[in-house]
């Protein structure tokens, strides 16, 4: 290993993934898919088995789980299309995973249809008959200056369940480990790899390479100041529940002009209404954010504009934090003074949607042969 035996009591790993959310879990999955004999450590300060189900400030546990392959520019569209392809491959190999295809409708100003078409990363938009939604959203009819469109190619997932399944896969492999309730505060160069250190500098393990995928905790973990200098900020993501039971094949409805959507969650017997919150610079260290009166007013405003009768069905909800970058692209890059370490953060509220492509890009930066050269972008992912 190229260093002295001060680490004799520590386990040694080929790859350590710091962060056990969907990006971290997907990173481990793809790494083991490529190298089944890899010694992999995934470590997280939260106990995912408990926290994914208990309303933690965890972006994975509270994610809406909607994958609609779109992107605001060519780089984001490439990531979205690649992630959709990887999710399709994952589901084909393991059909029992909680990832399901989803029909999607779009309601927007007719003047904005051309711009929406430009964002699509594969799916084709077609004009939809408003009667197609009459049984789902009675009374919903676009006005003369609005368009109702339909697309396929979307997925919805129980992100917590998917993440647990991927972590369990890692737990069951020889030479691999998943450690939870174990905070990593730094990665210190040591020999030809790194020591993962916890609070007070306590050494936790040795690894040859590492991916730091700490999600909304990014500013408080290893290389937090570097990520802050890159412009990463923490924003609240909010959604309300609607106390109405959707059919198993109910579609998603996206209000494109308002950056909001209705997502069926038949397994939970409810709909989820996601909308845009503009509360910035909170911290998961202080606990999860709360839904505010302003959040409620914004949710009611959007629903009353399109489907007024749904505004009275709002019932509870969820809020969590995520990392946002200035250009809304994931921050996936090597740490210059730590060769063999890559940060993979900045889900921008789309961590589930882009997780496979983020993970794939991080692994490619650690091992240039991981992907074919023509499939890699240059610079920032």
UniProtKB/TrEMBL annotation:
Pfam family, one: DAO
Spans annotated as Disordered: 52-73
SUPFAM superfamilies referenced in this protein's UniProt entry, alphabetically: FAD/NAD(P)-binding domain (SSF51905)
Domain FAD dependent oxidoreductase: 14-361
Source organism superkingdom: Bacteria
Protein known as: FAD dependent oxidoreductase domain-containing protein
